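Researcher: Structure for this, please.
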Amino acid sequence: MPIANSSTDILNAPSHLVADTRLDFRRAALEHLERTLQKGATRVVVDLAPTIEIDASGLGVLVLLQKRARERMIATRLLHAPASVKQMLALTKLDYLFELEG
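Model: Predicted structure, C-alpha cell format:
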C-alpha cells in the first residue's frame, strides 16, 4: 500500500508496482499530486526504494503521474529507483520523463 509522507511530501511506492497494485497506487499518486499542487511545490516526488518489482502497469502509473504533473507545469522526481526500475525506464525510452535521484 502506498504511503504519503506528508512531512517531506514524498509518496512511497509499494514493493510490487504491478497490475495488482496499480489502482491503489494510481489513486494515491494522483491524490499526492493534488496535495503537492496545493502546497505550491515545483515537483512531485515518489520514493521507489521499497520497489522490488515493476511491470508495464506500474510503469504506466508513473507515466500518468508525470503527464498530469507536466500539465500543471511541475516536474516528477523519482528517488532511490532500483536498477530494475531504471532498466525498465531505459528499455522503454521513458527515462527522460523523470528526474532520477539516488
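Researcher: Any notable elements?
Model: Residues 3-7 have pLDDT under 50 and may be disordered. The helical segments are 22-38, 56-71, 83-91.
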